[in-house]
Amino acid sequence: MPPASTGRRRRADAERSIARIVSAARDCLSRDPNASIDDIAKAAGVGRMTLYGHFRNRRELVEAALADALGTGEEVLSDVDLSGPARDVLSRLLDSSWSLVAESTALLSAAEGVLPAATIREMHAASALRVEELVRRGQDEGAFRTDMPIEWLVNVVHYVLHGAAEENRGGRLKPEETGRIVIATVQSILAA
Amino acid sequence: MPPASTGRRRRADAERSIARIVSAARDCLSRDPNASIDDIAKAAGVGRMTLYGHFRNRRELVEAALADALGTGEEVLSDVDLSGPARDVLSRLLDSSWSLVAESTALLSAAEGVLPAATIREMHAASALRVEELVRRGQDEGAFRTDMPIEWLVNVVHYVLHGAAEENRGGRLKPEETGRIVIATVQSILAA
DNA sequence: CCTAACTCGTACTTCACTGTACGACTTCTT
DNA sequence: AAGAAGTCGTACAGTGAAGTACGAGTTAGG
């Protein structure tokens, strides 16, 4: 059994396995928050025991998957050009991240089943803060509304993205249209 | 065992039990879509076996709960004053139904786990049609936007309501504010 | 090339939930 | 008041997933 939590060095193949498992976990849990450990191991092309070698239990696995998703989210966010009016920044931001956020909502709901709410909020803090700052900036510019709690403005964006993902999955929204519609919808919500 | 599906008359106490069970099912499933049969029976103050006496399996129970929720939804909808501009009608409609719809989203997701998608859509058809008609009317009046599929416009309202319910549950949105915020948010989305 | 690290199958225990079987008891209803 | 209808506990079988134990085989890396 690999040294899981200790700071020891890991062998390259172990590293590879972990990467595949985490990726598979993101995949499976995004489709079905109740996906079993077995499903995930299979999807990763790895024995269930290998998985348990790296993650003591479902909790740890879900946490790793969520952390990974948030990590790539952070990457994307930090690549977005922040110059110009908040409205435009928001459009660019949504354009490059809506699908990612959308796909992760199911993963998030999986996390809600096994991780304490405080942990989840904490993991989200970084990204949430960025969006919140953007909204605040838009408000200062007079472009975004101020008649609702900022927390609601930030969170409702998530719910819209979640919805877009659902509609996509159900074939009720064409993938090529989704970006445009998401952006237009969110802009309408935030506009002053 | 009572005659479940046959058209036979039921005794008054059975009728009462069923009502309590359905109500408890709505309650429990709205809080947790994975609530067990046992939880629901306990919440109804009824033995598990009594429950099985009236509902052959989880599927039937969930279906009954959903049907019941949709039924009260229909009642509320049919009480809404439909006169005047679509914008105003929408406000009245949301004001009297947002909490109901919001609470039922979890129940709906429970249903998605056990009922065929077609059945669910069909059960929803009546209410969905009303909302769709209202949106269409608003479009004809020039009050509502026409640059997105109408299906999206209708469904995104659900997602916003779902979000409002979540925020409420998490204490991030004050109950007394929620109505106002929901209405304002939805109006912004639909406005031309 | 040797050894520790890793993989991973099989088999097991535990656990929660579903649904069934039986039967004794209670309460409507006529 | 009698019988049908309904209540409901206990007990059982089946299922599916979580997590543990063991151990034999494989691979990376000094």
The most extensive contact between chains is: A-B, 26 and 26 residues
Spatial separation of the terminal alpha carbons of chain A: 57 Å
H/E series of chain A: HHHHHHHH
Tally of separate helices of chain A: 8
| Oligomer description | homodimer
CATH superfamily of the largest domain in chain A: Tetracycline Repressor, domain 2
Fraction of residues of chain A in helices?
over 70%
**Count of strand segments of chain A:** 0
Structural class given helices, strands, pairing of chain A? mainly alpha
Rg of chain A: 18 Å
Mean residue pLDDT of chain A: 92
Gross morphology of chain A is elongated
What would you say the CATH architecture of the largest domain in chain A is?
Orthogonal Bundle
Within the CATH hierarchy, at the fold level, what is the topology of the largest domain in chain A?
Answer: Tetracycline Repressor, domain 2
Question: Major beta sheet of chain A, specifics?
Answer: none
Q: Could you please describe the fold and organization of this structure?
A:
The structure is a homodimer of 192-residue chains. Chain A is mostly helical and 192 residues long. The first copy, chain A, has two domains: 56 residues, Arc Repressor Mutant, subunit A (Orthogonal Bundle), CATH 1.10.10; 132 residues, Tetracycline Repressor, domain 2, CATH 1.10.357. The first copy, chain A, contains eight helices and no strands. The longest helix of chain A has 29 residues. The N terminus of chain A is likely disordered. Chains A, B: InterPro entries: Homeodomain-like_sf, HTH-type_TetR-like_transc_reg, HTH_TetR, Tet_transcr_reg_TetR-rel_C_sf. Chains A, B: Keywords: DNA-binding, Transcription, Transcription regulation. Chains A, B: This is TetR/AcrR family transcriptional regulator.
